[in-house]
Design brief:
2 domains; single chain; two-stranded antiparallel sheet; 7-stranded antiparallel sheet
């Protein structure tokens, strides 16, 4: 059989590279799984504890409904948290479920959550810094909170898990607001379970949703 003629100058021969499409798909799935794990961590920080029992999923489902009016069933939550595997390894949470969780964690939707993670950088969201439980903060202690774009809030602990805003700079919080929260974690958002303001109904609040907070405590 005669040999194929050499390629003409300036003309490249076609070379077929065997790149399995399954490898590309696997990488996309891995990235999605990592993002969902980060979302679950953000939800647990807002919820105030690690989720790991049927009662936790029931309580979280109710808390999500109360917080934003959207619903997500305890069974769906169990699947997302890999507590049950009745759908097998092929289970993929719907965009609605992911956006509902992202909204609960203080974001507009799941796309906003993913974008904020890209802006903040992956390393800061793979690691959460020192956590201070509210129950360990003595009454009268002053907490200085700092987060993105010069936001600075001074709190005073009035009782276990309850704080009064003494000063607020560049923040939606106001002097005299009363907050209830379970913990403060560096490099993570601060989730206020109840924000009480004179003349208004109680609501929730998230500080440092995109880049987390830093804080210092002066015990008096």
């Amino acid at each position: 059989m005669p040999e194929a003629p050499p390629s003409a100058p300036g003309i490249s021969r076609r070379v077929d590279f065997d790149v399995p499409s399954c490898d590309i798909g696997r990488k996309a799935l891995n990235l999605r799984a990592i993002m969902i794990e980060r979302l679950k961590k953000a939800v647990e920080l807002r919820f105030g504890k690690t989720i790991g029992s049927p009662a936790d999923f029931d309580e979280l489902s109710m808390d999500i409904a109360l917080a934003g009016g959207k619903s997500i069933s305890p069974t769906t939550l169990k699947r997302i948290w890999n507590y049950i595997s009745d759908c097998g390894d092929a289970y993929r949470p719907s965009l609605y479920s992911l956006s509902t969780l992202a909204s609960y964690a203080g974001f507009k939707d799941y796309d906003d959550f993913k974008q904020s993670r890209d802006d903040a950088g992956s390393q800061s969201w793979l690691y959460f810094g020192e956590t201070l439980l509210s129950r360990d903060i003595p009454g009268g202690a002053v907490i200085e909170l700092y987060w993105y774009r010069g936001r600075h809030v001074t709190l005073r602990c009035t009782s276990e898990g309850q704080f009064e805003v003494l000063k607020s700079v560049n923040s939606k919080l106001r002097e005299g607001d009363l907050l209830e929260c379970t913990s403060f974690t560096r490099k993570a958002p601060l989730y206020v379970n109840r924000l009480l303001r004179l003349g208004q109904p109680a609501t929730t609040y998230v500080a440092g949703a995109r880049f987390g907070i830093s804080f210092s405590v002066c015990k008096k």
